[in-house]
Amino acid sequence: MSFKPLEKQVAIVTGAGQGIGYAIALQLTMQGASVILNDIEEDLAKKAAVKIAEQGGSCIAMCGDASDQDFIEKMIREAVNQYGFLTIAIANAGITVYGDFFEYQPEALQKVMNLNLGGSFFLAQAAARQMKEQQTGGSILFMSSVTGHQAHKNLVAYGMTKAGIEMLAKGLVVELSPFNISVNAIAPGATVTERTGGDAEYEKTWSRITPMGRPARVDDIAQAALFLVSPAARHITGQSLIIDGGWTSVSPSPYQT
Hints:
The chain has one domain: NAD(P)-binding Rossmann-like Domain (Rossmann fold, 3-Layer(aba) Sandwich). The protein has eight helices and nine strands. The protein has helices at 19-30, 42-54, 69-83, 106-134, 156-176, 202-209, 218-228, 247-250; strands at 10-13, 34-39, 58-63, 88-91, 138-143, 181-188, 191-192, 216-217, 240-243. Helix 1 (19-30) packs across helix 7, helix 3 runs parallel beside helix 4 (106-134) and helix 4 (106-134) runs parallel beside helix 5.
């Protein structure tokens, strides 16, 4: 019998119907965790959960808005009702709203703030309350971005939320460490997903300007996430890990000719 380091762990992963979130949820289950898999699109959530179950993973799909506090509480209750407790919460759900700074509209700003920052904050709050009550400790992980470190054209609002997420991870150290709850963030760079894969020039462009010679694959991000919520990282908290093949060290623009 192979050793599974996350056996008897229970996780919530938001925005996990496809892409990075799905890869994280899959890897968690392959390492023994049981997962509540969330996506706002019901079809994506259900299909993702079925695919994971077909590979032997324990996974329950939950469709809903990861920025809605009532729905967040519903996910916590479902995890506890189905598996008895909660030990890992990963706030992966997010939205990218491009826009020229001079023309950016209030509704666009509110939308990106509500999900990227609000969804992360309130998932952490609800999960930490449950972990505190259990007295078992746990791990919380946020999804930041290289745009929280380097300016990126037409992504001022998005980058602002991602920088805020990293401060959230750092600030919660003071609040959560007494309860043996770690809190960290990962900041992916350019990553090939179902969304970016539709752009024929995406991989070519980012391969040219990334020191490691290619953009990330979803498993590159998922493996880092897996480490940060695993027992191997139990003394790591308040940190943000950039996963970008070295791009932020040199930061050439993808818009250059």
